[in-house]
Every structure is written in C-alpha cells, then in structure tokens.
Amino acid sequence: MKKNQKGFSLIELLIVVAIILIIAAIAIPNLLRARIAANEASAVGSARTMNTAAVTFASTYGNGFPPGIANMGTAAAGDTTASCGEALLIDNQLTTGIKSGYSFTYKDGTGDTPNAAPTGGCAGWNLYSITAQPVTPGTTGQRYFYTDQTGVIRFNATGAASATSAPLQ
Questions:
Q1: Model-level pTM?
Q2: Stretch 67-89: mean pLDDT, rounded?
Q3: Does residue 109 lie in a domain region?
C-alpha cells in the first residue's frame, strides 16, 4: 500500500534552486552595469552643477572663480546668508568631494595668479578644473571625467581625464 505524499521531493527542490541561480547569474551583471551607468550619469551631472556654481560665483562676487569647492558650498546649519566663503550654490554632499561612487577634486587655477581679494571679499581665480574619478574603478564607475572654465566635460575610459581627453557627445 502506497501512502499519499504531500510536498516536493529533494530533486524537485534542487531543480527550482538551480533555475533561480541561473536567472540570478544572468540578471546580476546587468544590474551592476546599470548602477555604473547611473553613477557615471550622476558624476556628469555633478560636474555640470559645479561648472554652473563656479560661473555663478564669478558673476555674483566679481572676482573670478572660487578658490575651493567649500566656497561654493552650503553654510552651517541654520545659517542662510550667502557669502564668497559659503556661496550656497551646491549641497553639502558635493562639497565633501564624494557623491554616487565618484570622488571629485576642484583645483583653482594652476599656474594662475589669484585675483586680489576686495575689501571684505575673497580672492578669486581666472582658471579652475574639476576631475571626477570612480571611488572603486570597475565597480562604482568605468570612466574618469574632467572639466574646466570652458564648460566642456571630457572623459577617459582608462585613467585620469585631462584637458586633452575626448569631450562627451
């Protein structure tokens, strides 16, 4: 006499687990590529934001581009007064230099002489550059980005981007 069995056999469960693993093996690399693409898009957007902030800073304070990323940033909690020391043009996360898997570096005009600080103001520069590199290359991003006072964003897929790198299309 045969008993009524309820449930799944071990073989059936192993087949289901194997199918799930195959589907996961196909989907996970695509998710990682999508995340890298999203991080790169965020880095380009952040570079554009920093370009706009630098131009706004120069227009507002009339003494050139900001001497550092902190000068474009937000003020301390509760302080809403903009100044050339804290222009309130970009958010705190971007002023830390790391956002969405990319590390940002703002350099004032290398080889440039700073403009003299007006009374009660800040010294400004005629040149600047911004670089963005993945925090973990190959995981948080593939490409490196560069921009300067020209506003053109350039990239390099194999290493640090510079003023001679190919522009984004």
A1: 0.80
A2: 80
A3: yes
